[in-house]
Amino acid sequence: MKIIVENLRREFGQTIAVNDVSFQFESGQIFGFVGPNGAGKTTTMRIMATLDEPTSGDVRLDNISVVEEPERARHLVGFVPDELRAYWDTTVDDYIDFFARAYGLKGEEREQAVNSVEEFTNVTGIANKQLRALSKGMKQRVSLARALVSDPEILILDEPAAGLDPRARIELRELLSLLADQGKAIFISSHILAELTEICHGAVIIEQGKILEAGQTEEIVSKREQKLTYALRSMSDPDHLLRDLLQMPHIDQPRQAGNEFLFEVGGAEENAFEILNLLIQKDHRIVEFRQTKTNLEDIFMDITEGKVQ
Amino acid sequence: MSETPDKRTTLDHFQYFDTNPVWVKDLRQAARNWTVTGTLLLMLAVFYFISLGFVIFSEVEDRISGYLGPSIFAAIGVAALLAAYIFIPIYVGIRTLMERISINADLQYITTMTPGQIIRGKILSSTYLIILFYSAAVPFLVFSYLLRGIDLPTIAIAVLLTFIMNVLLTMGAIVLALSPLHIVMKILLALTVGGNAIFTAIYFVIGAVASSAITSLFGMSSFWTEALPIMITFTLDAFLIAGLFYFTAVAFITPSSANRSFSLRIYITFLCAAIALQFFLWGWFTNEEEFIFPIIITMPCLIILGFLFGIGGRDDLSIRVQREIPSNLVSRFLSFFFFNGTFSCLLWLMGLWALTILSILGFNALWNEFQSSTLIDYEDLPLLYLGPSLFVLYSFAYALLGLWIHRTFLPKRSPMLASLFFTLLIILPFLFFIIIYFILKQDMIDEGFLIPGIPLNVFMIMNVYDEHERNFGLWVHFGSAIFLIVVAMLLNTKWIIQQLKQFKPYQRSTDKPTIELTHAGEDNNLPPIVNSG
User: Fold this and answer.
1) Three-class secondary structure of residue A195 per DSSP
2) Which residue ranges make up each domain of chain B?
3) Do residues B87 and B223 touch, judged by C-beta distance below 8 A?
4) Under DSSP, is residue A19 helix (H, G, I), strand (E, B) or coil?
5) Are B5 and A106 a contacting pair at CB < 8 A?
6) How many domains does chain A have?
7) Model confidence over A124-137: pLDDT tens digits?
């Protein structure tokens, strides 16, 4: 399945929330949607989930237009909004059961589907609790269970990690990786970029309604990287080490970050080897020397030049 | 996980028949809701104390002579009506409204349920709630029957009557909650129109019981010829209005890319025909010509309302709608009036009025031929036909002018502004004229004062006593309405041509998708309007 977003535009009166947004991804991939608050992420996702309609442009899910055939598109999409609205007077089980019914599941098949997603998202223990009594993390799990009950091919998740504790975040990441392995296309927005880096195959970076960068993570990284960043940890005197680093060839912007030093090295990886060699020759007691992986946060800050709203 | 049951046989589908999901959900929610339970318990307590109070404090003679039954029935009826007529529409309306709030629309609207399925579920669950409330009142109504003074048919008819009106009020609340109006407007309408409807219904039902109108129906010698037709007409009308609510609500939640006007326009056409036929039949069989007046009065009002809402919608045709346009010329011509589109909506409404006038003329001719009296005298024709027609013609012209102002000066703003301009064009010039006249003459305008081009002036002219002067004024208005229509059509020529041209079957190879055309921005003076409605 291929998801193609073409020239999407959404206006609210005079405000252009989404401006000519285009990108694509496919089944088995997790795509991150990165941008500051108010960048147009939620609007784009709502359009993809057929909750809203674009002023122009379209989203095609294997050639099914969400504008022209929203009813068909809805068979394919599961949407997890940023916040699960507290359904009045509804238990977790009733909530998921209702959506299973709403997606046309009947009889035993429905029961199985509900049990299966409750187990998968680990909400079986809270099945009889009222939705409004749940914590944020539990609500996110229920929301994910609801989205999964119809077994959609595409999952759209809007800020699913917001408000979750570290353990819940790790569990969510694992769940998403598992779903991607099952062949689902996952589109996830978050402004906690470190989270996305570990699981995303690609990313779309948006700011003020416009796409700044979109594609596979490696492509974006290689497009951006002219210099490699290295991290160095040593038992030597920090001032002495910094002075030596500043005098060495190929090194750019050496700086201290916590208990380690970061610096960029231009040219081939040979240069890094040469630097390490020189440091050892100068009797610096090196504990760790590694190339740091550029993450989405670096790319985002680089692209937006740090001017995040 | 699960698989969707697509490849089942019809028999399997029957075997797996399931209740409407929205019905199940809404009832589960209601069962867990303390306001529903609380209101029910409160209502039962009130019934109990009413019954007890009447028995304890009533005079012994009343108990013996059988006056107590109707009194308790009326008191319980008032309490039940207040609870069911006020609580249920408000409860259902608020729930539906909360689910449709545009900033966070409920996710049930993006499941694979059809809009019809969702609305049917809402109607079923609210009807079930009404039945629940009424069933709580039944033991007390039986108690009132046991005390004598009221008969079972009266109880049955009164309960049926109130039940039907309750269902209609609740359906009205659902329609209002789903309408694309601003929330403030919805609340205002709920307080004014909804409140009025609720209290009128309560007044009507209680009045019918208190005045023994229902009891007297059964005692009439002409029960079969008058009372029964009244009841049948009432029930049929209730079904017709329920149908209108249903189709309107479905249209409100249908995606705007779908041909959502189609079923609604077909139904309204049927509704108008059914109501006109009903009045004709009543007039014919009771030999009373007054029955045609409701048609002449209500139809222009409905058509003007139609103009108001019709011009506030989108006027482009989605690819999905284009795919449904028939290639056969005759079918295409007919479907033009019923498919999405602003201009087609205006023409459909004008067509409805033309059919109304033609049907009344036909009825008039038949009446004069076969009935002993004359339905409408030749001299009254201008007043009866031309007067209401003038409102429709003026409204058509001003609707087109409202559209022109919006498309020319504020094309990027909400199309609902066209409706606002339409309203202002009808009201403001008249107010302006009255004020200027008052400033200059220090007096109000005389009822015979002719102001061509001002639709509200038609009311004044229709009230002129002198027949010659009145008819002259109406014909002058007719001329000015036609002139305004011509001007408005000329101003909208490009838009009208575009509307007509776009109504052709979709051809993938040659046609570009509407979406791309819509925003291409080339020499597009009157860009089609897209809104999420």
Assistant:
1) helix
2) 14-254, 255-533
3) no
4) strand
5) yes
6) 2
7) 999 999 988 888 88
